[in-house]
Structure formats: C-alpha cells, structure tokens
Amino acid sequence: MDKKLKQHALIEDALKSQIVAPMPRSITTEVMARIQTADAKRPAIITWSDFAFGFVIASCIAALWFTSQNLPPILLAKLRMQSILLYQDFMVNSRWLVPTLFFGLAVLMVALTIPTLIKMTVDRAR
Amino acid sequence: MAETDPSLIQRAQKGDQNAFAALVDEHQRYVYNLALRVVKDENEALDLTQETFVRAWTALPNFRGQSQFRTWLYRITTNLCYNRLPNLRRSLNDLGDDVMEDIPETNLNNPAIRFESSETRTHLYKAIDELDTNYKLLITLRYQNELSYEEIASTLNLPLGTVKTGIFRAKEQLRTSLAHLEESWIKN
To answer: Is pTM beyond 0.80 here?
Structure first.
C-alpha cells in the first residue's frame, strides 16, 4: 500500500478512536439552579412596545381605509387629479430630488447598520 | 421507555424544566468534551458547559429544529469559546480555503495496519493533543462529534472550504509527526 495512504489510514484510525472524556461530575443540578434565577429568565418573544407599535400602525391603516371608503366620489377624483399634477410637477421641476432622496435613504440605512456591525465586531474581538 | 429528544425539546420549549434536565443529562458529556478540547482546563470546561446549557435554556424558544439539538449546543459552545479565546476566531478565519488534494477513504481492515496502528496510536493521540486549538476544534467536531463538513461550517459560521482546509492541514500535521516517528525508528 502507498506509504501516504497507510499513514492516512493510521491517522484516521487514531482520530476516530479517540476517547470521549468522561464528565468529572454531573452539572445538571447547577444548571437547573441557574435557570431558576432571574438572570436566566427567558426574554419574551413579543414585548409590550411591539404591541404598542403594532397597534399604532394598525390604527393608522384602519383610519386611512375608513377615510378612503367614506370620501365623496368627487373628492376622490379631485385627489387623484391633484396627485397626478403633483407627480408631474415633481418630475419636471424637482428631478434633482430623486438622487438626493436615494442618497438620503442610503445614508439612513448606513446609519442604522454601522453601529450594529461595530457592535458585532467588538463582541467578536472580545 | 426513555423519551426521545424531539418530545423533550418540545416540552422544554414550553417551560418544562424536568424535560430540560433530561436534555442536560443526555448531552452534557459531549458539550463538556468539546469545551475541554478547546480550553484544555477541566474547571473552565465545566464552567463553559454550564454556561452553554443556561444559554440554551434562554434561547430554546427560538430553536426551530433546523439542525440537530446537539449541533445547536455545539454552536453555543463554540461562540462561548470564541469569547474566552479571542484569537480562536481569527485563527480559524485565517485558514483560508486553499485547493487541496483529495485523499481517498482507506480500508482499515488490513491486520498489518491494525497492528502498527496500536503501536503508533499513543504517539498519534499525543500529536492530536498538541495540535493548535483551531485544528483541535475542527478535528473534535468532525471525528468525535461526527459532524459533516457542512454542519461544522454552519456551527462555526465559516466557509465550507475553510473547514476542509483546516481539517486537511490538521491531518497533514499529524502525518508529519507520524513521519518523524517512523524516521526515528529507522535511525534506531
């Protein structure tokens, strides 16, 4: 048999036959004692602020829907016309605003992401 | 009859501490073994094992069963090891993912190899013990905990190529050590 293959076989054999170290003592009691203390309490998956935030968003959507349902048809048509005019005015006179808005959005995303990335890097380095 | 892991996990997720205690009983040995290989200190390994299970309890509601429960525990353990050994993560990342030659699986049923294996086994165990921590972590996950390369990559959050390179290099170190042993036999 090729020498290298033989060595490989011996190494594989040694790696696979390593003994799993026995536990010096069971830690079950200590773990169970710790999970009963306050610091190991499970964090709630949904917090009260999530509920409040969800409620506000849902209320806004509901209000918008009810308003749109109860507006007189003539007013709806006027609104649609005004929005088209605004869009056209925007496209003609404020075209520069498009890249500015995108840039602003990118800056916002960076501002939201960078602190988290820095925190992850610091945590990893610790 | 002993309860299976999935039903214990389900009960523990709902807050059943007895079910979680059964899980701790079942898996602590393997977690401890991994921690011991990395930190090389019995007390510190025990401490890490304990911490792993406390964190596992806290995070258990988020466990979706995409991986084996034990693999998930190994992930928590290795993250704790990263915190204790700041250079471990870096040394794993620095392994890179070089292209390596593929060594075919070898049949160990040859009695001559078996004999020589028992002769050299002690030497190889010592060599395994002296491997760098990053290699030892990879080797332990692969051979003692029997994780696939993909599972190791996912557990350590490393590219698959890096895992393969690391294990290949660890074996190369062991092969060099074995070659030195054989050379010393020839000289004597």
So the answer is: no
